[in-house]
Specification:
Layout lengths: L2 H10 L7 H14 L1 H6 L5 H25 L8 H16 L5 H23 L4 H20 L10 E2 L15 H24 L1 H11 L1 H6 L4 H27 L1 E2 L6 H14 L5 H18 L5 H15 L3 H9 L6
Antiparallel strand pairs: 1-2
Length: about 325
């Protein structure tokens, strides 16, 4: 049997389901759901805000993992979608449109359009060239945000109210906002997991391994990657919506290349391609960042090398470590 028909059969065949793979994600979401209870029992209230921020970035890291871990596309401009989502939210709230059911369709549509246009250009390239073009588009949006003098420019935009959902002030309390972000994170995780397990996901994963063979079997690799890129951008835009409501502030720094690098670090730290690894990586990254920042004002000098060393000397990130600790079972 030739390689092309064999690959076609692999794509067409349903992926085997392993119950062990669900254990860690279910446990993770259960622990997150219990965080407000832990605060009521004596855990510092600041931890709830920290976990909320971590979950917001977990949505962005999860969206990046779809194209990085599954599709093999290293985007160094992914924070642009985070910033677009935050700015659309901030501008609409400033203009008197605080309803999330109005903001989200506009926000997701703009992110999808930007991803479709830039993705169609970026996906004509490969490797380092792809990385540099995504970086260039990200910086383009960054400087555009700086030029928005009507909405704060380089100083950013302060928000004096939060979004509502169907007229309900669910974001007005820390606990209510926490559970809204948790529900969004769980929904995004289930959506991405379904996509990855579907035929679409198997083609995307196969294109990462050998795009030429996938093309020979009759699949349009560029179109598959573009669809994944658009979905990824929309999910990152959703994270921007929550980030704007969490900080009550929008800044061009949200879409800087440094932020894109942090999202890549979060994904790699948790375990590239494992999906829930992106969530774990984002939470671990922000908790470690917060802990070190309380020790010294020069915490970045310590934090940077620690992250680099961890990535270099661990295989599969945190999820890989948990898998090996569990005797090789799927984590």
């Amino acid at each position: 049997m030739s390689a092309a028909p064999a690959l076609a059969e692999t794509i067409a065949a349903p992926a085997p389901r392993k119950r062990g793979r669900l254990l860690l994600p279910v446990l993770l979401f259960c622990l997150l759901a219990l965080a407000p209870l832990a605060v009521s029992l004596g855990m510092p209230a600041g931890w709830l805000a920290l976990l909320t921020r971590a979950m917001i970035f977990a949505i962005a890291a999860l969206s990046l993992d779809l194209i990085l871990g599954v599709g093999g596309l290293v985007s160094f401009g992914h924070a642009a979608f985070l910033g677009i989502g935050a700015y659309v939210t901030g501008i609409m709230i400033t203009e008197g449109h605080a309803e999330a059911l109005v903001i989200l369709p506009v926000l997701l549509g703009i992110c999808a359009l930007f991803a479709a246009v830039t993705g169609a250009i970026c996906l004509r390239t490969r490797g380092v060239t792809f990385i540099m073009i995504t970086l260039a588009f990200g910086q383009m949006v960054y400087f555009l945000a700086q030029a928005l003098s009507a909405y704060g420019g380089d100083d950013g935009l302060t928000l004096y109210e939060k979004s509502t959902i169907a007229g309900l002030d669910l974001f007005s309390t820390r606990t209510g906002f926490f559970y809204c972000v948790l529900a969004a994170l769980a929904g995004c995780y289930v959506l991405v997991r379904i996509l990855v397990a579907s035929r679409f996901g198997r083609i995307l994963r196969a294109s990462r391994e050998n795009p030429v063979r996938v093309s020979v079997t009759g699949f349009d690799v560029t179109r598959i990657r573009l669809v994944a890129y658009v979905i990824s951008g929309m999910l990152a835009g959703l994270a921007g919506f929550f980030l704007a409501n969490h900080t009550d502030f929008v800044s061009p720094a949200f879409m800087s290349w440094q932020r894109s690098g942090e999202l890549i670090f979060m994904t790699v730290l948790g375990g590239v391609g494992s999906l829930h690894g992106a969530i774990i990586g984002a939470i671990a990254y922000l908790i470690a960042e917060d802990a070190l920042s309380h020790l010294t004002e020069h915490w970045r000098v310590i934090f940077g090398p620690l992250i680099v060393l961890f990535v270099l000397f661990t295989r599969g990130g945190i999820v890989g470590m948990l898998r090996r600790a569990g005797g090789g079972r799927d984590a």
